[in-house]
Amino acid sequence: MRSAWSTEILLSVDRAALATLRGQLEHQLRAAIDGGRLQAGVVLPSSRELAAQLGLSRGVVVEAYEQLAAEGYLVSRRGSGTRVGRRPPAVRQSAGDHRLHAPAYAFDFKPGLPDLTLFPRRAWAACLQHAAARAAAPQLDYPDARGDETARRVLAHYLARARAAQAEASNLVLCSGYTQGLDLAARVFAERGVRRVAVEEPCFSGLWQSLQRLGLQTIHLAVDEDGLAVQQLERGAAQAVVVAPAHQFPTGAVLAPQRRTALVEWARRSGGWIVEDDYDAEFRYDREPMPALQGLAPDRVLYIGTASKILAPALRLGWMLTPPALTAAVAAMKQRVDRGAPAIEQRALARFVEGGALDRHLRAARPVYRRRHDTLLAALARSCIGGGVRGVAAGLHVMVELPRTTDEATVVHEAARRGVRVFGASAFWRDSTAAAPALVLGFGAIAESRIADGIARLADAVEQARGAGRRPLGVEQRRRETV
Amino acid sequence: MRSAWSTEILLSVDRAALATLRGQLEHQLRAAIDGGRLQAGVVLPSSRELAAQLGLSRGVVVEAYEQLAAEGYLVSRRGSGTRVGRRPPAVRQSAGDHRLHAPAYAFDFKPGLPDLTLFPRRAWAACLQHAAARAAAPQLDYPDARGDETARRVLAHYLARARAAQAEASNLVLCSGYTQGLDLAARVFAERGVRRVAVEEPCFSGLWQSLQRLGLQTIHLAVDEDGLAVQQLERGAAQAVVVAPAHQFPTGAVLAPQRRTALVEWARRSGGWIVEDDYDAEFRYDREPMPALQGLAPDRVLYIGTASKILAPALRLGWMLTPPALTAAVAAMKQRVDRGAPAIEQRALARFVEGGALDRHLRAARPVYRRRHDTLLAALARSCIGGGVRGVAAGLHVMVELPRTTDEATVVHEAARRGVRVFGASAFWRDSTAAAPALVLGFGAIAESRIADGIARLADAVEQARGAGRRPLGVEQRRRETV
Predict the structure, then answer these.
(1) In degrees rounded to 5, what are phi and psi of residue B136?
(2) DSSP string of B219-279?
């Protein structure tokens, strides 16, 4: 068997086969074109080259090319060689290739996203370009599992000054975002004998499922206006707790100072671990953000931050500040699961932060979000939606309570009929039947000028849903403003 | 308590505290500078700004700045504001911040690495820059867990033409390299009831430990000149097998055609899964590379490829072709562990491949590695090392058997003393005592001109080790050339 791998195409002919050599060659080329391996316009080797590579007489290749040209598979032109023709190949449709195309909404209140049109493309592109073009050979090797040294130093400095974290480059592990950070932490916990992890109720959907799939038992603790009900930790026998002290999702609560202290005391007393989800702490509109909890207890808190909300989720960049006792284990886990984060992007991030581009971006983005937040709250106050707005002026979403008699799913459905995308909050409860009807409204993906109209339509949807509700109208309308 | 978060620094003063406001401010600034949160050269807000933000009289801030300037913490200059001074902060040294600095070797035969100086920096940087600058807002959102659609289409086309894979964009899942691909596959297997996974003996160290840590039982099958001893699968009750058919590490064996067929038949008959590690298949020097096994049985083979050997490990880019029956589960696992690979890098890769830069790079790199390979083999043949060279002319390493009486560790040690870094092969066996003494020599990281001298020194080290060996000299010197 002789073969050629010309222009990276695998072709071979087998002299022992029954088919003629020309027939084999034709068959293989047809199959390659039909199968999409050779696409229209690709230049084939000259008949002389291919014949030499395959150990065939040139005439065999010429004849095969001529036959395929006659069939439309190939196009030969004097001076420009032989190319694959435009004849559509037999299309291989795959049932698996369906994408969920979300219907377009006139008013999109999807939570959990920053405004992606604000992403500083040029500055980021320049940092990437710079990092790649200057990457020295050792930086192209397998990275330190914790991440590039320069990137860790710069990020540690950023977290210290912006989040008052006790950040040191040595304890920083770069990862691909909050999700991976949590996966790494949970796997390290599981290996160290942690069996029970407390989570907030409600919280990001997927959080407790991920923990449970790793064999961990989850304990669901309430969240009120002061954040996680830390006192419940004492009863639960949890060995670790996942908490978002700066701005809880979806309630928008901030962990109260006395609870921060109590949480740290619990961790110190019980030897428990705290996972701090600091996902959108950079956006606080009414006052200074709370410092990171990690700064109070760097020995007990595993801090996870992400670029998803301050820049863009597609970057898949995150960072963990690990308690010194866990650093080696987290780094080893990172090494085991993917051998470390991409180095060029880390150096780009370092340049982006060190050069002030991140500060500039945040300074530009904050007032935009703040105006959207204020516009949204004003629109909600004017509307007859009736429930209260929970949480502080921060982040990229608010939670709106609906009148108790309203069916949440009906509101979401009626809103969608009016071109408004909203999310029911019950999806974020483990026990959704226990959840009071509420909506989570994101303002990262909607222009300020669209908000009032969107809320007016939403109010209409709520009204419609209340009319359709099974329970009688007119019951007490709780107003629990914690803004 | 009033605070300011100017230039992302957390500062606050508490009117209820016993310390004077000025004292508090000074203390916090000192701590921020000592702790590294504020570094030399950082510009502070003007006294007027900071006073307004903190709700203090300007005089308090002026006095605090003056005191800190006197102490060297700050430098004030008319017209350029107040900056953090060059006074070295109290350094917080961390015991955890030790990096293993490998000693520099005059001759480095480290395996598993391409020549990083060949990395096409400029072309890659241009692709990254282009992808980032043109990223539309939807591309900056959380990505499809399988990866960017364009990147999958381009890569599927590449794998079809270059590796004769039955690649479709819908079944492709982008990941961060072979390590993550294997972790995802193993976790999916474990969830689907797979308990026993066969691996090659010897193989990449870490492979079976990773599987075992996920609760899977590993079955270790021999590798000979024809690759994995597929016939042993029949006895072992394995439900999946991890194999490197194109170029096995460390033996360099290629899976023989009849074994490829037998392996696929085993999978079809038993319902077993095959994980194909195609890690350096693009580098074959003596003949055409074997097509990917996946092309024979896309329904049973989970194919994993990586940019680590053809470009650079630091990119952390890999790809999996998943059997259609597993695609959804693998994508869901990728979603769960890290919500998908970074999108800008994927689009950069797509541009790099589609624009022909990858083909150009491979065409340039192949002859470089081929010459190093041939030079290495010639030097080994001239040397008196005595053992045979195993494996085919491919990839980035060869395995060299040592005379049976030689102690492998002594050779590695004696070589290091002579400035030559080589790796003993026994580390790649589960049962290293069963391994015949051998070395794995990489030629990715050593210049062609250094190879002959390095091997001469290595021969000297082997000679020394044989003299130091416990067993008598002069025994039969096997020569099992399978090149």
Answers:
(1) -75, 160
(2) EEEEEETTEE-GGGHHHHT-SEEEE--SS-TTT-----HHHHHHHHHHHHHHT-EEEEE-T
Closest chain B C-alpha to A463 CA, distance in angstroms: 33
Cβ contact B119–A125 (<8 Å): no
> A283 exposed, middle or buried (CB, 10 Å; 0-12, 13-18, 19+)?
buried
Contact B342 A316 (CB under 8 A): yes
Contacts with B162 from chain A: Cβ below 8 Å: 8-10
Q: Please judge whether B157 and A133 are an interchain contact, meaning their C-beta atoms are less than 8 angstroms apart.
A: no
Report, in angstroms and rounded to the nearest whole number, the Rg of chain B calculated over CA atoms. 29
- Extract the tokens encoding B186: 């193993």
* pLDDT tens per residue across all 483 residues of chain A: 344 444 445 566 655 454 567 777 877 787 777 767 788 888 888 888 888 777 788 888 888 888 777 767 888 776 678 888 875 433 333 333 333 334 578 999 999 899 999 999 999 999 999 999 999 998 999 989 999 999 999 999 999 999 999 999 999 999 999 999 999 999 999 999 999 999 999 998 789 999 999 999 999 999 999 999 999 998 879 999 999 999 999 999 999 999 999 999 999 999 999 999 998 888 999 888 889 999 999 999 999 999 999 999 999 999 999 999 999 999 999 999 999 999 999 999 999 999 999 999 999 999 999 999 999 999 999 997 877 898 899 999 999 999 888 999 999 999 999 999 999 999 999 988 888 999 999 999 899 999 999 999 999 999 999 876 544 333 333 333 232
Q: Is the ipTM of this complex over 0.95?
A: no
* Other CB atoms within 10 Å distance of the CB of residue A370: 17
Pairing state between β A74-77 and B217-224: unpaired
User: How many Å separate Cα A5 from the centre of its chain?
Assistant: 39
Minimal Cβ distance to B342: which of A42, A162, A342 = A342
